[in-house]
Amino acid sequence: MKERFKIVFLLIITLAIQGCSSTNVNLSKPIDQLYRDGEMSFQRGQYKDALAQWKRVRESLPEAELAARTEINIADAHFLEKEYIEAAVEYENFSKLHPNHELAGYALYGQALSNFKQIKKFDTDQVPLKNSKILFESYLKRYPNGANSLDAQEKIRECRDKQLQYELYIGKFYWRTNEYPAAVSRLEEALYNFSDLPRSDETLFFLGQAYVDKGETSKGREIYSRLLKEYPKSSFADEAQKRINKLL
Prior knowledge:
By secondary structure, the protein is mainly alpha-helical. Among the domains are: 2-83, no CATH class; 164-247, Tetratricopeptide repeat domain (Serine Threonine Protein Phosphatase 5, Tetratricopeptide repeat), CATH 1.25.40.10. It contains 12 helices and no strands. α8 (149-176) runs parallel beside α10 (200-214), α9 packs antiparallel against α10 and α11 (217-230) packs antiparallel against α12. The radius of gyration is 25 Å and the shape is elongated.
């Protein structure tokens, strides 16, 4: 992941720090020296040390451009330290404070990726998943030709696939607990919202069974036939055909 920050880091280390050599009463070193110390720690992979130094720079209330660069550095250091909650907060704060900065798009993407990194299993907390999808979509809307647009598109697809897995999980739970109307409703919605994803054959299979168990055998047969027509090579195809034969 460190490659992700090379371009921005080169911009940072070439920054001319002007008007920042004075010391604060709470600082043992000049602000520009603390900033450079943070750079050195960052380059060595010592992100905790970099954070400590850059936070002292930020607390000294430096001039606007140095403040902005320090804030994005802090976000990056949290990210590389795998402190994704803290990184997301720092990237978001940067976006709010500097909406027109040259690194605003980078910060938005960083915020999205920090939320994405918080996603665990698809059947647990859905908040990071929803947030990351919204943020990646926002990034693409604002920066359709941005440096991370292709990756954002892929991440959105991954988010949608996890959302589909969650909807399938809930739909199958309703089916297993004999809540067939609820299962049908959930699986129909999943099929409508995620029809472009590879798991549609699985969705169709369990939707067909939910209709059959609900007592709507003709509708279930119709769904099974659709599965066979649209996904003839699906791993669910043989079982779907067997169930159709039983319904004849």
